[in-house]
Amino acid sequence: MDTMARPVSVLIVDDEETIRELARLVLERAGATVLDEAENGVIALERYRSHNPPSRPRVVLLDNRMPGLTGLEVAAEMLDEHPTQIVVLFSAHLDAATISRARGLGVAACVAKNDVIKLPGILDDLLAAS
Fold it and tell me: Which CATH code is given to the segment(s) 9-129?
């Protein structure tokens, strides 16, 4: 696994603890800092809003299918408040309609969960483009 070229802070949001752990492991081994984690959309928004600039996570990694608010609903609120926030939809269920809606909201990337090992490179590319 490669080391990330740029330092990045991340908020990981997923209702499955094992997925959060896996994403954290992959990202931290590549040099990212996981600032916080949340197990649903409501908690994600609370934790996101509790981090004031400059301590706000540069990237938010969001599952879509969660109890309560979906990842797309959370992304819409975050991007409405902070349009430059980098949001990555990280889901096992990425159909064309979900990807289209995510892009329409301003989500920076959609990544399938089985591509977790690619996250550091994807985040590096997004940071380089921002």
Answer: 3.40.50.2300
Residue 52 pairs in a beta bridge with none
pTM of the model: 0.94
Q: Which sequence spans correspond to the domains of the chain?
A: 9-129
Q: Which amino acid is located at 68 in the chain?
A: G
The beta strands (E) that lie in 7-120 are given as: 9-13, 33-38, 59-62, 86-91, 109-112
Count the alpha carbons within 13 Å of 101 in the hemisphere toward its beta carbon. 14
Q: Give per-10-residue mean pLDDT for the chain (130 aa).
A: 81 96 96 96 95 90 94 97 96 94 97 95 92
The distance in angstroms from the start CA to the end CA of the chain is: 23
Helix, strand, or coil (residue 57): coil
